[in-house]
Design a protein that fits this description.
two-stranded antiparallel ribbon, 208 residues, elongated, two-stranded antiparallel sheet, single chain, mainly alpha, 9 helices, 4 strands, disordered N terminus
């Protein structure tokens, strides 16, 4: 049963780094250097919002991949392991939310405006959001879309409809919020931006 995860209560990046250091270097003897530990802890914190339970779940997936590689990997391979670990994590621990979100993605992942909006919702840090704020975020990130009409209001409305809504509308405030706080985690784990092509793409295993 999916329980809503609040957007507060997480630990900061220093706390995430300490958990990663204890788990990977002290327990698993992965011997990550400072640069590798920084990459790992910042990305883990980004995806999990610093929620300790989610940090442990994600790090378990990454640790399994490291063990399969016998703890020998390049920086690019570590980066790819973290990305793949994120995908495995949400497909396992957050499978229903992952399925709901995946069903909402436009198959034409590079050019879909809905995907731009979903990615923006994952990046915006406030608990609720207005269409104007989402539109501004997208156009600040992708200046090439400054003159493009994205119709954010309609997309937010569509995401709040159906039996498995991603969002819910806060009628009194005229804003939207995630139906479950963990949707932000899933978005951050599976979507990334490509500013050079003005697109959003799914995270892949990369060089791993």
């Amino acid at each position: 049963r999916i329980k809503e995860i609040p957007l507060y209560g997480g630990i900061g990046i220093p706390g995430t780094r300490e958990l990663c250091s204890r788990g990977f270097n002290r327990a698993l003897l992965a011997d990550l250097d400072e640069q590798e530990l920084h990459l790992l802890s910042t990305r883990v914190h980004y995806m999990t919002l610093g929620i300790p339970q989610r940090i442990h779940e994600l790090c378990y997936e990454i640790a399994t991949l490291m063990e399969e590689a016998r703890f020998v990997f390049s920086p690019a391979e570590l980066d790819a392991m973290i990305g793949l670990g994120g995908m495995l994590w949400v497909r396992g621990s957050l499978i229903q939310l992952h399925t709901n979100l995946n069903d909402r993605l436009n198959p034409n992942i590079k050019n879909a405006r809905k995907n731009l909006v979903l990615h923006a919702l994952g990046e915006i840090k406030s608990d609720d959001f207005r269409a104007s704020e989402v539109d501004k975020f997208i156009k600040d990130q992708f200046p090439g879309l400054a003159r493009t009409t994205i119709n954010v209001s309609q997309i937010l409305k569509d995401l709040s409809l159906g039996d498995r809504p991603i969002l819910r509308k806060c009628t009194r405030r005229g804003t939207y919020e995630f139906a479950h706080g963990a949707y932000r985690m899933v978005i951050r784990a599976i979507l990334t931006s490509d500013e050079s092509s003005l697109s959003i793409r799914k995270v892949t295993a990369g060089n791993y």
